[in-house]
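Margin note from the TA: students keep mixing up input and output lines. Inputs are the sequences; the output is the structure of the whole complex. Example:
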Amino acid sequence: MTEPTTRIIGFLCNWCSYAGADMAGMSRMRQPAGVRIIRVPCSGRVDPLLVLRAFQEGADGVLVSGCHPGDCHYGSGNYFARRRLELLKRMLPALGINPERFHYTRVSATEGARWAEVVSAITERVKNANDND
Amino acid sequence: MIGFFICQCGTNISATVDTGKVAAAAAAMRGVAVAESIQYTCSDPGQATIAEAIRGKRLDRVVIAACSPRMHEATFRRALERAGLNPFMLEMVNIREQCSWIHSDASEATRKATDLARKAVARVRHHTPLLARKTAAVRRALVIGGGIAGIQAALDIAAAGIPVTMVERSPSIGGNMARLDKTFPTLDCSSCILAPLMVEVKQHENIELLVNSEVDDVHGYAGNFEVDIRRKSTCVDEEKCTGCMICQDKCPARAPDDFNAGLGSSKAISIAFPQAVPLIASLRKEHCRRFNGNKCRLCQKLCPAGAIDYGQEEAVLRRSFGAIVAATGYDHYDWKASYPTYGMGMYPDVVTSLQYERLLSASGPTGGRIRRPSDGAEPRQVVFVSCVGSRDESVGRPQCCSVGCMYTAKQAVLTREHIPDSQAYVFYMDMRAGGKDYEEFARRAQTRYGTLFIRGRVGKIFPRRGKLVVMGTDTLAGDQVEIEADLVVLATGLDASAGAGELARKLNIACDRNGFMTEEHPKLRPVEAASAGVFLAGACQGPKDIPATVAHAGAAAAKVIGMLARGELEASPMVAAVTESRCAGCFKCRGVCPFGAVEKARLPDGRPVARVIGSVCRGCGICNVACPPGAISLNGFTDKELIAEIVEVLKPDVGYRTLDFG
Amino acid sequence: MEDLISAIKKVLEQVDVVLGWARSEAAGVAAPAFFHTPAEAEGAIFDSTCVHNLAVHLPRLADKKAGIVAKGCDARSIAQLIAEGIIKRERVTVIGVACPGVIDVKKAWRCFGFGKRVSDSGGQVAMEGKTVKREEILLRKCRGCREAGPVIRDVTVGEVGKAPAAPADPAGIRKRFAAMSFAERRQFWQDQFSRCIRCYACREACPLCFCRDVCTMQAHEPGWSGGATNSSQSWMAQLVRISHMAGRCTGCEECERACPVGIPLMLLLEEQNAVVEELFGYRAGSGTEAKTPFLTFDVNNDSWEQER
């Protein structure tokens, strides 16, 4: 039997990370196939509850990616997101989720290569997350 | 009734994704009335097929699986509209950039495309028709920066009858181009082609010129920007000053000569350069005796126009604009710290290319005679070093300045023209001469003007017996080269001008990793910034030569004219909206909104509720997350839609569900 | 008690209503009471059976001038409500009381049997002739109380600032929980929430859950959780509430006290409060001017080590 696909929900902001993921595609950068991208206007739109909901629906991992500090299309969305998501990340152990399964990061519209790296690295980390720790 | 259309994109998609299989899977999804695989959905026949299905099958929602929505969402929205549907009843599935182009396993890619299709079908069910909002736009444009880019943009916009305010932070417009001697490849005099345009800006009835001014703050949104412009104190009444230069002649305080790139010196009160527009003096307080504890008031006594006012204060003007053009240009890279082996600026006869322009220029500190700074002697051997702070990973600057090869060739040519028995050497990395007639010009520099081109980087420059020894590698010959030079000219790379990053933040636009402002799309939207109503002109977006800058600025002007000509703007309806019956009146939304788009309103029963000012909201959705009862919601990205996506995209969990979280 | 009664009477001269407690014949503990007149105020009491956090009523009295008798922990809730602009400082008069710690009525019932009138005198909690030392049945929050001096108060009754002397709570469930693996914790919560009956007492008791009728815990849309009483949906509904409490929960433990099936909700809220305090140095309810950390940001200092 083949190894099951590691499914990761990716919430990507439209202006930076989604464009970065497009850029990776335009450059034909091979990536693990388990990421399912959900486009949002801004990482500030990502409710931590959406992340929990994704876990509840059976996602193996969740990734939120927005703009680098100073690059937010709306000025401050990524700053709000950073606070909300850091809290979430630190709350996950109490909820019974290995924090290795959740990542938030920053990829700009020009960083196609970085996006491909992020997808590979995070897929690996999620795959290796041990829930019996 | 949902229509599902999957694009083969020739073989771009169909080579990896089995589009027929995805269409078949989609046909079985709830609400899908028609599912088709089309060779090119964006083509005319492709769009016609979709339109036919909309009419024939009475579709009210459409899902298109194709390229990135960033590419063609607008195209397909128009197609829906033409077919009689609300354009926002569309959902796109990105199966090219984010699927077929990044996967090689066809079954994995097809499964992923099917998951994404299911997600989109679920999402589109929640779509509601949205109407684009129309808002009145202020018919005035702001141009920031008075170099050739700003000048061109301002003149073009003004020519269309739209008033323009140009803000320039230095005392004169003209920018870097005004400092250049001649221009490649035609060797026409830079000032001669620029000066008439500068004068035209000053005299144009539709252009208001504000020099010594900077953009302090920007509020508002496309069509209705409110901009605070800070007018710096120069102690000179612009209305009265006639530009007679008496003050400059008599001023006893020396000051650096910015226009001449630090060569020669100027006075504390001065006119920037003889062709300055406007031709008015300005006083630099940091160099003035009066402002440094002395009693001097010579300029005030001598000014025949009575224009000197030591008490002049800064002022902040607030103006409204419909559109903003950033044309802040470039600065030369400050090479000194990064190139210790080139002397870090200790050797006066190692000059930058911009300084060399001033040495060549008839209006420069040497009156157009090439004289080396150390002793005023005429150099015989001149060595040009290309790519100083360009294409050099060792100093963390991989980017090409795009003009260095050509201006260096030009300067080599001009050196021979000025001093016929001189010899010019150029150390270069590659000769990049891509423009019209550029290659021919560079060739002429070698053949007709005898410039010696050496391919390689210079390792070291050091003084020896009154000369500068330039040591480098000739990578073609595989040799070390050593040249005794009288003068060394460094072709320094280009940076976004100082303060561009700060301005970008005020304008709410992004900068790339080299500090240049980012356009919305590298090919299709080269002058639009990501913030609506803000446009880029010239080198602020990336290094450009003069023809490219003029073309870019003209394009920006055309966009501004197109935007403001109709007097009203269509704004995206994908903004936040409040369901008043669910609003608890806590106003957390108001607290987080970056744009001040939420106001307090009262229902007839006196209950306070939040209300979104649609024309101010930009649709980020930060408020949506902050609202505990979920009363405020971002059109097009509602919780309902996002939850539906999550649930559906993860639906077939047989075989690979590892986490049991509730 | 006379001090309290006269304080309430005095406050009543300036406000429409004072929230306090009165002896109840029906409940095991003192009952919340609304005092409108000096005569009504005669019935006011305060002792370790006054367990409720009365701040929960303030948002609904926002259009009135209200007085409120507040323990230290209650005062934090009031401060947070003011900080969030849900109630106005000038409309509320806080009567801060010296609190001996309040009892865990479930523990009392375990000692005495269910449902009878419980009274407190001189450190002894009594019911139908049987007595137990108050310290032994205090609520968890009172052991190691940090809030003995009400953070906000206009009138003070008694000598505030002295935390009740009580032994620290035996770690019990917390110790077990800390030792669990991620998978075991998921199972733990599934078990806990399989008992949830979706009564929303946790929400009703919470002074900061101001949404009330429009709460998303039980709303059909947008679909955070369904309305079923299965473990999965109840769990998600509670996570909605906990998420909305981020940077707002003052740790009054009313939700856990109110839970009829005894789900240890504070395990999660304590964790969240600790993280918020660690990240932002912020404790909700510390003052009336504070800004909840999730309604703002700090460009330079919000830089936790991020993944890649």
